[in-house]
Amino acid sequence: MTNEMIIFNERIRLMKEGILQGTGNKIIVEDAEGNKLELEEPEEIHTFLGWKKLGFSVMKGQKAISKLVIWKHVTKKAKSEDEEDDERMFQKLAFFFKASQVEPLKEQKVACYY
To answer: Which of 3, 63, 91, 97 could be 101's S-S partner, Cβ–Cβ 3.0 to 4.6 Å?
Structure first.
């Protein structure tokens, strides 16, 4: 199962439990037997780093709403030209937060000296 599928299934579960809200968008999903269902799309969840890449910071004191084991891809650069880069995948526990737990990153103030 891909990370996208793992996270989507968790978003659906969290919405059913009332932890996440719906976005108002309708999506059609297909189960393993080929049955199609129309569902409301749940709000997004991201890791601490995922929110940071989107320009947000997790607010101080917030606890993750979900802990999931997802796949992580790493590449170790070769030490010499005749070696190949070492790529591997492994599973890692990741902590997820929802939009109400984050705030926009504050712009850094740059001191100007004239």
So the answer is: 97
Closest Cα to residue 98, out of 41, 25, 19, 26? 19
Neighbours of 114 (CB within 10 A): 2
Q: What is the pLDDT of residues 63-82, one digit of tens each?
A: 999 999 999 988 888 788 88
**Rg of the chain (C-alpha set):** 19
Q: CA-CA distances (angstroms) from residue 114 to 96, 108, 110, 111?
A: 44, 19, 13, 10
Find, among 46, 69, 68, 67, the residue nearest to 58 by Cα: 46
**pLDDT tens, position by position, 12-31:** 999 999 999 999 999 998 88
Q: CB under 8 Å to 33, separation ≥6 — which residues?
A: none
Contact present, 35 and 58 (Cβ < 8 Å):
no
Q: Which parts of the chain are beta strand (E)? A: 22-30, 36-42, 45-47, 56-58, 66-76, 86-98, 102-104
